Each structure stands twice: as structure tokens, then as C-alpha cells.
């Protein structure tokens, strides 16, 4: 099982991911896609990355605004797996021309 990160480690990893904010046991990012369908395609790609990593974000879809939240449920908080997937989500969002 992945190790829980302490507050200092979480703060350190968040510095590399300026689009993400911490809310308790999770980190969250909002992404605005160029259109609804672009957002759905982006979510599909995130879903494939999540399956590959065997780590799954909570996803909220509102027209072209997507919110991704990450936490490691089995560990009860934030681990390196959340930050690794967050970086992959950033790369996917950028490739899809999202803000
Ligand atoms: C068996 C499998 O590894 C676990 O159920 C995984 C699947 N995806 C997961 N995703 C997230 N976000 N947290 C988990 O603890 C988790 N556990």
C-alpha cells in the first residue's frame, strides 16, 4: 500500500502542481475544456490513465468545466499516487487545450 504523505511532503508536492489545491484529505483541480465534447474526450483519456495506474479520481462534469479530486482511499489520505496521477491529468488537460 502507498505511504501517506505528511503535511510537509504534501506542501512540497503541491509546489510542483500549481493548478491543484488541497482540501483536507484530497487535492482538487478544475479544468475548463474548449467545449463539452472536448471535455468528455479529456475525461476518457483521464479514465484510461486512471485504469493504467489503478488509481481513480472523483470527476464532476458541468458542461465544459471538469473537476478532478484525488485521494488514496485505502490509505485514508494523500499519497504519491495522487500526485503522480495529478501530473498526468495536467499533461492530458494541456494536450486538449484546456485551461
Ligand atoms: C484494488 C485496487 O488497487 C484499489 O481498489 C484501488 C483502486 N483505485 C483507487 N483509487 C483511489 N483514488 N484510491 C484508492 O484507494 C484506490 N484503490
Key terms:
single chain, 99 residues, alpha+beta, Gyrase A, domain 2, four-stranded antiparallel sheet, 4 strands, globular, binds ligand H2B, EC 4.2.1.96, lyase, Putative pterin-4-alpha-carbinolamine dehydratase, Pterin_deHydtase
Structure report:
It catalyses: (4aS,6R)-4a-hydroxy-L-erythro-5,6,7,8-tetrahydrobiopterin = (6R)-L-erythro-6,7-dihydrobiopterin + H2O. Belongs to the pterin-4-alpha-carbinolamine dehydratase family. Its EC number is 4.2.1.96. This protein has 99 residues and is an alpha+beta fold. It has one domain (7-95): Gyrase A, domain 2, CATH 3.30.1360.20. It has helices at 7-15, 36-53, 80-95; strands at residues 21-23, 26-32, 58-62, 65-70. Strand 3 and strand 4 (65-70) form a beta hairpin. The longest helix has 18 residues, at 36-53. The termini are far apart. Bound molecules: the ligand C[C@H](O)[C@H](O)[C@H]1CNC2=NC(N)=NC(=O)C2=N1. The site of the ligand C[C@H](O)[C@H](O)[C@H]1CNC2=NC(N)=NC(=O)C2=N1 has 7 residues, from loops.
Amino acid at each position: 500500500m502507498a505511504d501517506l504523505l505528511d503535511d510537509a511532503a504534501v506542501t512540497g508536492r503541491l509546489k510542483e502542481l500549481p493548478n491543484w489545491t488541497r482540501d483536507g484529505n484530497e487535492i482538487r483541480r478544475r479544468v475548463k475544456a474548449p467545449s463539452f465534447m472536448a471535455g468528455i474526450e479529456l475525461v476518457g483519456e483521464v479514465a484510461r490513465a486512471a485504469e493504467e495506474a489503478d488509481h481513480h479520481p472523483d470527476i464532476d462534469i458541468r458542461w465544459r468545466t471538469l473537476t478532478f479530486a484525488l485521494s488514496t482511499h485505502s490509505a485514508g489520505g494523500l499519497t504519491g499516487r495522487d500526485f503522480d496521477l495529478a501530473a498526468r491529468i495536467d499533461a492530458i488537460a494541456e494536450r486538449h487545450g484546456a485551461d
